[in-house]
Amino acid sequence: MEAPADLIAIRRDLHAHPELRFEEVRTSGIVADYLMTHGYTPHRGFAKTGVVATLDTGRPGPSIILRADMDALPVTERGGQAHASRHEGRMHACGHDGHTTMLLGAAAALAVAPPERGIVHFVFQPGEEGGAGADVMIREGLLERFPADACFGLHNWPGLQAGQFGVRAGPVMAGGWRFALRLRGRGAHAAQPHRGTDSVVAGAAFVQAAQTLVSRRTDPLIPAVVSVCMFHAGSTDNILPDGAELAGTIRALDRGVLETLKDGLKDIAAGIATSCGVEADIRFHSPYPVTVNSVPETEFVRGVIRALDTDGYPAAMTDIPPSLASEDFGFFLEARPGVYAMLGNGEGSAPLHAPDYDFNDAIIPRGVAYWTTLARRFMARPDEKGRSHDNV
Ligand SMILES: [Zn+2]
Ligand SMILES: [Zn+2]
């Protein structure tokens, strides 16, 4: 199936005009205009630039959220296409231009041929890249204003064949925390270290000890990562500095393991403070939850993608390996059951966040078909035991 020309035009226009987290003003305007053209009355303003449109069939049934992210990354594009970014240092390097376009296509298609009952909310979310825009929308009351029984997200995936779906039950993307460690010692002459307390040696000991957490303190069968990515100290080669600053990130596919890593880093910081005679202050920030697909909804999505495995597309991977990247859709899946699924961007695709990445327009119809089939099938599901929609 070929992608409709109007959707390709929108995708390429969004690609040429990328906007960073919470600055998606032009993008959200295009989204809202398109939705209005197709009969919706979009709500605007959640998390500054979020857009939500609702399709109410008028017949009692379940409600679902279908979510796309809209933001770009601070990357300078190195692709040569005519639709390459017009802005130095801004680029749709994660394909959110494609996600937005596919959900718009689905909203248009479902407006013409709606599900037999229930309510579908189309959520266009800002600030996925490091902004936890999902968390912001939920804190601002998204789920109270637009109640949903389940939430669904879709991300293009380089390395999977173009149009091939992938899904797994349970943890699919890692949760994580960023951390910052400040060490305060006492500066001294390089030749008289005993007259001060050395923050550089203390920092080096912290880096080394932090690497024993994953090997010695967490379950080796559960993937996890500790990375110290920044270490700043000193000004010249014959002075021991009076402090050091370190920063990094921890990632894991299990909430308990994340807590273990946090506790471990605090213990190491405290131990090094004692043994090296420095003050150590470790702070954690920017938490992302583990993105966990609920089991019954994953089983449901497996049915959806199997039904779409026609027209010569490669068979879906119904138990795709998880990734240690993080994704703020985890906030939706902490609040409601649901599924975060992958759609192949092609085996030859550059990786996500790379300067030569581009979303593959050929997969737009697959994404639209995924959303429309998912919505129709979800509403056709038999009600759970004891739940009735007759008297709503
Ligand atoms: Zn990304
Ligand atoms: Zn992304």
UniProtKB/TrEMBL annotation:
Family matches, as Pfam families: M20_dimer, Peptidase_M20
Alphabetical keyword list: Hydrolase
Span of domain Peptidase M20 dimerisation: 177-269
Cited InterPro entries: Amidohydrolase (IPR017439), Bact_exopeptidase_dim_dom (IPR036264), Peptidase_M20 (IPR002933), Peptidase_M20_dimer (IPR011650)
Signal sequence interval, chain numbering: none
PANTHER family given in the database record: METALLOPEPTIDASE, PUTATIVE (AFU_ORTHOLOGUE AFUA_6G09600)-RELATED (PTHR11014:SF63), PEPTIDASE M20 FAMILY MEMBER (PTHR11014)
Name of the molecule in the record: Amidohydrolase
Origin organism lineage: Bacteria, Pseudomonadati, Pseudomonadota, Alphaproteobacteria, Acetobacterales
